[in-house]
Amino acid sequence: TLYFNQLYGNARVNGLTSTTASAVRGGWKYDHNLSPRMFLSGFNDYEHDRFQNLSLRFVTGGGAGVKAIKSKRTQLDFDAGADYQRENFIGALNRNSAEANFGDNLLFKVSKATTITQSARLFTNLTDTGAYRVNFDLGATTALQKWLGWHLTVSDRFLSNPVQGRERNDLLISTGLRLTFAK
What we know:
Blueprint: E1 2-13, E2 16-33, E3 38-49, E4 54-70, E5 74-89, E6 93-109, E7 114-125, E8 132-143, E9 148-159, E10 169-179
Antiparallel strand pairs: 1-2, 2-3, 3-4, 4-5, 5-6, 6-7, 7-8, 8-9, 9-10
């Protein structure tokens, strides 16, 4: 699975233009089936968030999981593992840490045209005990044509130990059109 989300906005007030939103999230995840219900996974995430003063967060890791539900309309996976995180913040603050992670992925087909996806993951910091991160993503996509769809995405990032003067939580809500390159 590959994913990429970007949000950027600016506003002009009294002749001055300033950035109102700037966030980029992307990465990949690969699951390798060991049996019909068990799998191994590997992933790599990248994140930039100007309002967290985050230049780049790089996370790579892996683990194992179970397919709790697998039907024509619903798929629910739970997995857990370990990862390495490197955070580079504006102002030369860098943090490296080992983490344990636990999460789920849900895919639910509401109808032939509409699909809901949900992903939640808790990253507990093993280097700086007590620190943690939570990633939550919820999306809905409705196919308008075979190649064109409408989507709504809610993406939340919680950081227990943000840099001084920054908020612990960052919520993004976006909507738009989706192009599908399929036969």
